[in-house]
Amino acid sequence: MSTSIGTYIKKYTQLCIGAAIAAVGLELFLIPNNVIDGGVVGLSIMASYVTGMPLGIFLIVLNIPFLYLAYKQIGKSFVIATIIAVIFLSIWSAVFEHMDKVTNDPFLAAIFGGIIDGLGVGLIMRAGGSLDGTEIVAIIADRKSVFSVGEVVMFINLFILSGAGLLFGWDKGMYSLFAYFVIAKMIDTVIKGFDESYGVMIVTNSPAELTAALNYKLGRGVTILYGEGGYTKQKKEVLYCVVTRLEVDKLKRIVNEIDDRAFVTINVVHDIVGGRFKKSGH
Question: What backbone phi and psi angles, to 5 degrees, belong to 262?
Answer without folding.
Answer: -65, 145
